[in-house]
Amino acid sequence: MSDVQAATGTFTTEGDAWRFDGALTFDDAAAVFAASQGVALPAGGVVDFARMTRADSTALAIVIALKRRATAEGRTLRVENLPQSLRSLATVYGVDNLID
Fold first, then answer.
1. Domain count of the chain?
2. Per-residue pLDDT of the chain (100 residues; tens, 9 = 90+)
3. Which residue of 59, 65, 79, 88 shows the fewest CB atoms closer than 10 Å?
4. 3-state percent breakdown (helix, strand, coil) of the chain, nearest 5
5. Taking a C-beta distance cutoff of 8 angstroms, is the pair 75, 51 a contact?
6. Which domain holds residue 81?
7. Model's pTM, two decimal places?
């Protein structure tokens, strides 16, 4: 098992998926993003946010950046269990198609 760690939240590789634990806010988004760039995307193409404890709009930016990276690498990435508040925010911003 390998970890992508940040100040508050952490992506952990579990099987062929990434799981996010903790908070993902403005305070640690840059560190989370930078750490994720040094690790191969999950083999199964799934990023699970079920254990996210707190998020703001920067979490949405991280999700979109991960999806863009997957596209650039010719892969698909499926986001699971994203909090409804972030899904609603994506709809308001008009970027909901980028996270599905």
1. 1
2. 445 444 478 899 999 999 999 999 998 899 899 989 989 999 999 999 999 999 999 999 999 999 999 999 999 999 999 999 999 999 999 999 999 8
3. 88
4. 40, 30, 30
5. no
6. 3-99
7. 0.87
